[in-house]
Specification:
The chain is α+β, with helices and mostly antiparallel strands and about 400 residues long. Helix content is about 35%, strand content about 20%. It contains 13 helices and 14 strands.
């Protein structure tokens, strides 16, 4: 391919290979500028529906103009060779950079803010990356961050959940036989993507959290020997939270926690919130910090061998206020002590901390009972009732799908 002329583009040198094709440095002889030419794989052509979708997505991507997103200039075809003409970013990708450099907290904040800004601009246009990883993030010679291959995963492969088949995901086929690249990609997949389900922008938010973890700790979060082990870690492994530099960067660590919630319903929903938090917005810092301790993955109870995360601060305060209110309502001259207690979830149930206001739990008017929303392994929500004087919570019948 090197030395060939495609339309008015001269192919100069190979820059890299990936599941979406080979990337070459090219020369636009009409405009006299260097560009990146992404040659699309021949074996993936011939599907009219897929090609039509790719053209539609390419047009959408061409309208995405942001300083932190590499631009697409055009989609061309010459003698059966289909290729994208893209902005050429001089520098090294983030994966290469991290291989020899440990970023300071300040540098991490600067890099992460630019990544979040690029994601935000794309998400506002309805464009999701779906394959965000350090190898797809370039650091230019001037220190500017550029996100590459935005939306190309969906443009070519569509949503994996359309067929429920993980094998068609670009994150699995990305490197074909290059195990290291496959593992590197699989390690940034969201749990819902690893299960082959349809994904939305929250998959990008998960990947952003994994990248931010790596920037802060200098270690890859999910680093296993095989694809299966890596995907299993994405789905099950508990992050070693002690590795995060909480004392140096508590705000960044809170953002990581909010991004790395396996249930997308409880995950940070808007990357713009993360960007504002990285920039130091006081209001956003408060919003980000509220759920952080509540949404971490459950710890194992060594006696029962199952998750025992309790509804903590919100319920403790509500119960305390409720008991106090009840006592004052009955005996206004008597001081009533607040009651603080932990409520574990029923067996095989997780708390739904994403429920609408005023929170995941409600106290009865007399202060004797608490109701809360939980969901089972199939994701179905139900209401549960707990008498504070008893040890067990009961499911309220007929509440499937309720909050």
């Amino acid at each position: 391919m090197i030395g060939k002329i495609l339309a008015h583009y001269e192919v100069l040198s190979l820059l890299g290979k990936g599941g979406m094709g080979e990337v070459y440095r090219g020369r636009d002889t009409k405009l006299d500028r260097d560009v990146a030419l992404k040659i699309l794989p021949r074996e993936l052509s011939g599907d009219p529906e897929r090609e039509a979708r790719f053209q539609r997505e390419a047009r959408s991507l061409a309208m995405l103009q942001h300083p932190n997103v590499a631009s697409i200039y055009g989609l061309e075809e010459v003698d059966g060779v289909r290729f994208l003409v893209m902005e050429l970013v001089e520098g090294e990708n983030l994966s290469e950079h991290l291989a020899h450099t440990q970023l300071s907290v300040g540098e991490t904040r600067r890099v992460a803010t630019q990544i979040a800004a690029g994601l935000e601009a794309a998400h506002e246009k309805g464009i999701i990356h779906r394959d965000l990883k350090p190898a797809n993030i370039m650091i230019s010679s001037s220190g500017e961050i550029k996100i590459l291959d935005f939306g190309l995963a969906r443009a070519w492969f569509g949503d994996a959940g359309e067929r429920g088949d993980i094998e068609i995901s670009p994150t699995i086929t990305a490197a074909m036989t290059q195990a290291g690249t496959i593992l590197g990609t699989a390690a940034y997949m969201s749990p819902e993507q690893a299960r082959g389900r349809n994904v939305d922008r929250r998959a990008d938010i998960w990947a952003f959290g994994v990248i931010l973890w790596e920037l802060l700790t200098g270690h890859q979060l999910f680093e296993e020997e095989t694809i299966s082990d890596t995907l299993a870690a994405v789905l099950r492994a508990e992050p070693d939270w002690d590795r995060l530099p909480v004392d140096e960067a508590p705000d960044l660590c809170r953002i990581v926690e909010r991004c790395l919630v396996r249930d997308p319903r409880q995950r940070l929903r808007d990357i713009g919130e993360a960007r504002l938090g990285l920039e130091g917005s006081p209001a956003t810092q408060t919003r980000l910090s509220i759920p952080a301790s509540s949404v971490r993955a459950p710890h194992q109870d060594s006696k029962k061998g199952r998750p025992t995360v309790a509804i903590t601060a919100a319920i403790a305060v509500a119960v305390g206020l409720g008991i106090g209110w009840f006592g004052l309502g009955q005996r206004s001259t008597t001081e009533t002590a607040a009651l603080h207690l932990m409520i574990p979830p029923p067996r095989d149930i997780q708390f739904d901390l994403s429920s609408a206001t005023p929170g995941p739990a409600q106290l009865s008017p007399d202060g004797r009972m608490v109701t809360f929303t939980g969901y089972d392994t199939e994701g179905t929500t139900r209401l549960y009732l707990r008498h504070l004087a008893r040890e067990e919570s009961m499911e309220i019948s007929g509440t499937a799908g309720a909050v």
